[in-house]
Amino acid sequence: xxxxxxxxxxxxxxxxxxxxxxxxxxxxxxxxxxxxxxxxxxxxxxxxxxxxxxxxxxxxxxxxxxxxxxxxxxxxxxxxxxxxxxxxxxxxxxxxxxxxxxxxxxxxxxxxxxxxxxxxxxxxxxxxxxxxxxxxxxxxxxxxxxxxxxxxxxxxxxxxxxxxxxxxxxxxxxxxxxxxxxxxxxxxxxxxxxxxxxxxxxxxxxxxxxxxxxxxxxxxxxxxxxxxxxxxxxxxxxxxxxxxxxxxxxxxxxxxxxxxxxxxxxxxxxxxxxxxxxxxxxxxxxxxxxxxxxxxxxxxxx
Amino acid sequence: xxxxxxxxxxxxxxxxxxxxxxxxxxxxxxxxxxxxxxxxxxxxxxxxxxxxxxxxxxxxxxxxxxxxxxxxxxxxxxxxxxxxxxxxxxxxxxxxxxxxxxxxxxxxxxxxxxxxxxxxxxxxxxxxxxxxxxxxxxxxxxxxxxxxxxxxxxxxxxxxxxxxxxxxxxxxxxxxxxxxxxxxxxxxxxxxxxxxxxxxxxxxxxxxxxxxxxxxxxxxxxxxxxxxxxxxxxxxxxxxxxxxxxxxxxxxxxxxxxxxxxxxxxxxxxxxxxxxxxxxxxxxxxxxxxxxxxxxxxxxxxxxxxxxxxxxxxxxxxxxxxxxxxxxxxxxxxxxxxxxxxxxxxxxxxxxxxxxxxxxxxxxxxxxxxxxxxxxxxxxxxxxxxxxxxxxxxxxxxxxxxxxxxxxxxxxxxxxxxxxxxxxxxxxxxxxxxxxxxxxxxxxxxxxxxxxxxxxxxxxxxxxxxxxxxxxxxxxxxxxxxxxxxxxxxxxxxxxxxxxxxxxxxxxxxxxxxxxxxxxxxxxxxxxxxxxxxxxxxxxxxxxxxxxxxxxxxxxxxxxxxxxxxxxxxxxxxxxxxxxxxxxxxxxxxxxxxxxxxxxxxxxxxxxxxxxxxxxxxxxxxxxxxxxxxxxxxxxxxxxxxxxxxxxxxxxxxxxxxxxxxxxxxxxxxxxxxxxxxxxxxxxxxxxxxxxxxxxxxxxxxxxxxxxxxxxxxxxxxxxxxxxxxxxxxxxxxxxxxxxxxxxxxxxxxxxxxxxxxxxxxxxxxxxxxxx
Lengths: 302, 772
Known about the structure:
The complex is a heterodimer of chains A (302) and B (772). Chain A is of the alpha/beta class and 302 residues long. Chain A has two domains: 51-82, no CATH class; 86-300, Rossmann fold (3-Layer(aba) Sandwich). Helices cover 43% and strands 21% of the residues of chain A. In chain A, a hairpin with a 3-residue loop joins strand 4 and strand 5 (140-147). The model of chain A is unreliable at 39-48 (pLDDT under 50). In chain B, 37% of the residues are buried.
């Protein structure tokens, strides 16, 4: 594929382009197409059913796994074990709280997040892995359980499409319920602006890790939240009841940036401490950044 | 007019300007009220930042607001044209400024700095001021006065524009410095009168001067004159055009005992020199010029300490009769004009003395004549011995002085002649003798209208050798000589002659006459007393003449004076008596250049036609336009004669009694501006020629070139309207100088405020880096 085409396709990963597409499924498809086309080869796809070892049968093993050809030669029951014999389960936890409504660029944080979620689900399902989605605000609003069925994508899309953000975040409660609903070890992808009580957040993340889940925190932030380029007298009205303030934002910028930096630093540090994979993503970033991060995590699991 | 309006040129703009001050406040408030709403998620950090920065933000906002108000205030002040000093306001608001320039053209301005004189420097400065001033906007008017003649303006109230400057510059370049002295007082007063009469314009006085200490320091009258300018709200710039003080030696005085001398007889002139510099001056030489040709001998002048005065005498003899011009000249220094001084001397073949002796033998007269004119070629004197009855037929004026020996008494008309002779300057020496009519001497001669004799006399006192006394010492008495020019030979402390004079007889003053001069206080001075205290010689003056009185005879019947060993003293004393009594000659006058040269005479004496021969210019002098002028004298009104002009007190009013009755003629010799010898020719009623020579010299007061202490002038609080400037920094004769300065200050402040406001605003607002 020549570079011109690549550039053309890369265009589809830009948030401002994606924002023009209203249907989430189409959006996701665009993103995935753009993402996949950008890869030179695709070693990560297809089933990896490579033989690993034989193991003697013990009571309770699935009879379907017995290597009958070996039995015929040796008259013993051996199980044939493969390197990866289970599908990856990706549980996406999408923040739908009011603060996610904030938008200054082409897409609101929520729009961005659910596009990413849809694209990830599409990719995961393509690999015949299973994907599930939960959208929460104060509690879990909708939960699409993980599945690898071909038509499961439709369910996920529908779940993401109908939800509109609202309400206040109760992060610990949400994470606990997600935890409870996950039977098998999964990759949990938390997509949020993380504007929630810090201790509860880390409590929830630590809990997920202790249960053996792989946790990815995608921190979705708007440009203005990170850069704070406001000027002129403004009245800030807090989302999620954060209070109001009339001020000259330029005068407060330095203080704001310091506070923000402390916040990001705390999160980065705590995530690293508890083995949570953390990634800060701006809504102006190309969407493949999030996808690539998740898929890299998927590769590590092989 | 309200109180603030005196500080503004455009007071109408003040209230709107004050209202404008509300604008930044309103904008500030409005900007706080009008805001955009933003729904924002990360309020947590914003609130935290606000908590931390609240106080700082409020302060910065206030400061910004203040700066903006200040900027508006400054703009308002600029538009309303603030003037801090209301006294200067008039100058700016008035449609015009009237500049009066006082040009110092006194003699000291001839001080040379290199090739050019200080006066040239002043002219150059004046030219620059005029040219600069004509370029500026705003109508200014100009009057230029000279200090020596402030009542005749060089330029009188002209509009200062380029056309006028073109017209006046040639005239200004041709101005010459005078040789006169000038005090700033007259010109400052003249300027004040001009400015006071012109009420419509803002007054400003510029004085272009060399600022000599003698004119400006410790002169209360100058301070008073300058202070009087304050009353008309005039500001004064003293513009110092001289760069520094140079040393200067001046011939302060050139004088002689007499201006009449006999041909071939040494004549002594006295030269007074003063070193006005700061260093001792050595090796000076003086040259004497006789009728314009320099004499071979030089005057060697001893070293003169700084500030010191020195007298040098020099003798010359004249070869020919007539009027001779004597000039003494030093080598050139900073002020070369005061190195020259002029004198005129009337030289005759012999000076003649009249000796009246009524004693039959005329013995006494022969002693006096022998003393005075034993060898006329040495003394230059001849004496005529006569009896008193010839007096009425004699023209007394041709005699230098008259000895009256052994006169018993004189007829009334002769006495009057004698009195007039003395009053007009003649000298008389009395030696009454034993036949004197005591009553005539004591009463007639002492009549208040005559006052020819000093004291009432009585009997002759004789030390009688035959009255049984054997003591030789009682036969005579030694006199005591007071210090006096005629007793020079006796006054010196080691004189061998003082004890040789022995007096045997004398006329006693009456007992009721007070012997103490100071107690009597009638102008009579006792010159000689006997050791007994008896006065025997007096001196007094009448009019211009002098009278010497000896209460004894001139011959040896009275004393041993004419004979050895006292004879040498007798000879010298008589020569000195002649010198002391010598009638000053009317035809030579010594004057200084001050005021105008003016002559007055009774109408019966000369006709009104006057011819004046002016001095010719020397090789280094400025060229002279004319060397001869013919003038007409005018009739003087009686009421303004004499008193108004004290400098002309020594006029030839030969008949003082006629002064009140007889009208006088007067002439002012206006071309007499430069030093030198002026010959004035007049004609009496019979057509006979009378020549008077006037030696006109530069004033001595201008030679001190020390520059005034500026602090002393400006530190006086009453002179706070006076500035002292250098020639370089002298401002032009332009418009609103002061206002412009204030404008620049305000403008500078405004710019600084705006810059500060911008910097603060930049600091307070967020400016992202330019996007890549």
